């Protein structure tokens, strides 16, 4: 199926009824130099979904969206990779907002989507770098759509948030998602980084608020922003400290 409402995202869609991981498939197909930008790999049943920090991503079959998008952002320097992260998080967030217009959904830095204390979507971006720029980016997205039971985990879905009665049409959510991500990625392409960053901060969970964190020790601090490398800036005792993804976790 070819998406009609986009310029280049989703013009080629590879559908796998079942697979190990759409990101793994994405990493394989970028080996072929003729892979076109905007190719999407989507599955209904992912057996070995991967998440960040080496976690696994587990999803009930046929209920949610699990997909990977191939981008070729060769105009982005590896040091600026966070712009991709902002664009994708905001595209996913906008989609959740489209289907749940009266619910607040925020981005938990760097790229988890949260409603209240529950995670509704996660993103795993894997870049390949060549000659000082990002040659390929495999953008993996897991968005909980119609799953209701999360086995006690703090997770939610569009359907759980909407009262649990009428399932969402996943194809419709998919099309909206692809189109929203393209809209944000076009901002990256036209170098509207400042606009993206303002929009990201506007939806950043805990921005300018006091939050609890775990680093070498547990502490409380105020999220002051994101630096140009995408690191989290936290004000602690009147001083701003910056943290890499590996160096800090939220205590929600
Ligand atoms: C996270 O929250 O830690 C990121 C989760 C990313 C999950 C998606 S599902 C589709 C794609 N394929 C994978 O193996 N992972 C991503």
TrEMBL record:
MF annotations from Gene Ontology: biotin--[biotin carboxyl-carrier protein] ligase activity
Cellular component annotations (GO), alphabetically ordered: cytoplasm
Query: What NCBIfam families does the record tag this protein with?
Result: birA_ligase
- What is this protein's record name? Biotin--[acetyl-CoA-carboxylase] ligase
Pfam families in the record, alphabetically?
BPL_LplA_LipB
Gene3D superfamilies per the record? Answer: Bira Bifunctional Protein, Domain 2 (3.30.930.10)
Per the record's keyword annotation, is Ligase included, yes or no? Answer: yes
Judging by the UniProt lineage, the source's domain of life is: Bacteria
Show the InterPro entries listed in the entry.
Answer: aa-tRNA-synth_II/BPL/LPL, Biotin_CoA_COase_ligase, BPL_LPL_catalytic
For this UniProt record, the keywords arranged alphabetically read as follows: Ligase
Positions of the BPL/LPL catalytic domain: 14-189
